[in-house]
Amino acid sequence: MCGIISVLSLKTKIANCLFSSLERLEYRGYDSAGIAYIGIDAKLHRVRSIGTIDNLKRAARELSIEGYIGVGHTRWATHGKVTEVNAHPHICKGVAIVHNGIVENYQELKKELLKSGYTFESETDTEVIAKLVASYIDNGIDFQSAFKHAISEISGTFAIVAIYEGAPHLLLGVKKGSPMAIGFSKDNQNFYIASDAVALSTLVENVTYLEEGDFVIAEKRDTLTYKVLDNLWSETSRKSVPNRVSLHDVEKNGYETFMLKEIFEEPKVIRLTFDKFEYNLNTSKHKSISIIACGTSYYAGLLAKYWVEEALKIRVDVEIASEFRYRDPLLSADTACIFISQSGETIDTLSALRLVKSRGYKVIALVNVESSSIAREADFVIKTEAGIEIGVASTKAFVAQILSMLMLCTDRNSLAITEIETSVRTVLNMEKKFIDAARKIMSSNSLFYIGRGPSYPVALEGALKMKELSYIPAEGYPAGEIKHGPIAIVDEDVYTVVIAPLDKYFEKTISNAQEILARNGKILLLTTEGAKNLSYDFRENENVDCIFLPQLSNPVHQPFCLVTAIHLLAYHTSKLMGYDVDKPRNLAKSVTVE
Ligand code: F6R
Predict the structure, then answer these.
(1) Which domains are delineated in the chain?
(2) Which residue numbers in the chain have pLDDT < 70?
(3) Which atom in ligand 1 lies closest to the alpha carbon of residue 349?
């Protein structure tokens, strides 16, 4: 959520690295962007624009961006609208700040600063930081100490980088709650502070992840040096690790969008997850399981509930992290708490994890980013093998999550992994059918996704993907629940995606579909080959379209190809409507604010 890149260099050519990293960081926020740098004229310069990095580059095209130090930011708006004035960097008297996260006490700080004569131009919380640092400098304190004092006054979760015209040799950063990664270029000519390793993918070979409360102070003399200070301001060392993010991971590799690339990677993710999975759940110790997550990861938990309860015969509760953490949850030592998160940085999930740990219980994390905060704070980590996911809507990571959960409760020899993988490939080869279906769906006023049993969480995931990408209101429901209220909405402008593989729920789901048809609703039936020869009279109905997906020999495995199907459907609906699939409006990958 918001992306940060900054560089301190022995050379003056910093523009390329700022812009190319910002392009890579766009997935973290893309409302607006900006850079600030101290030019070879020793002055602080700033360019900002709303929208994409292309807009920013256009705004900067008249400038020859040359200097030894600069910061860049892509924004996901929290405080203040999407305007150029609210875009980062925020500056005050030669201090430039980029910030990821939230300053919770900014109103009080702002009041004090206003009293002292400082004026504000933006509606952001970030501007307070720039003013606060500048106010200390105004009082005769050096930049480094001013930054330290200012940080000690702000509360909230954040990653902040600062530069100052009066100390162009210093690049300062602090991490509290939001991730921060640092590293040197291979030739040691550049030092970077960024919000994640993706920003640094082509820039550094080794990356160091800062820990909670860490400050980083990088200095340019004849060479570049840096030190990390812990939250008590004592020098400390943090391990550097190879930067595993490769160019291949952060490029589209011939696909039109990252999301399409990532959907087409789903079969590969299935194979890799299966090959690398080596985790066990201690079922003699655990009498129940609590799964805690947000969004798509929460739906992965809901699907796992069906599998785990059936396979292990232990109770599974699935909880939305943002609700869980503000209740007083009943926990016990024999409950295994599993936190699912693609990014490993979702603050709601991380806070819920901290709550469980504070009660003295051990926690398990199922995460896709090994270096993430959730992975680092968990007692036990299950790494999903989705690879880097850039598309804001999670796709392949969801597949890795559900397979990992299935493998936690199933003997690996009983998994028909080749059949699962092949069936998903078959669905990908049916892409044209989803484009045709999307063409019909795109003009509907609203959508329902319904399913029973494990197809219900698939319906929830389908509806989430559809609404976040196409902006058509879409709700997922258990098929049997639709008649208890939601059916009131159904008319000829409402489409329902009925997820009904041929399984023990099939006939009941079809009956619910009939109820929708009886009210002139339109239906896209996602079913399986096995249902082709059954007679259910509505197939000839002009309001019904059917897509037959591969029938898997074990019904437990069926959700995999249903998931790929609903991903393709949402993708193509959004594409046909002309939206930016990788950057749906109002969203960002990795939600590090509450
Ligand atoms: C939807 C989506 C989000 C995330 C949610 C949790 O496509 O991507 O709903 O699933 O923000 O994110 P993680 O899994 O990173 O904790």
Answers:
(1) 3-242 (3.60.20.10), 252-415 (3.40.50.10490), 426-581 (3.40.50.10490)
(2) 1, 535-539
(3) 16
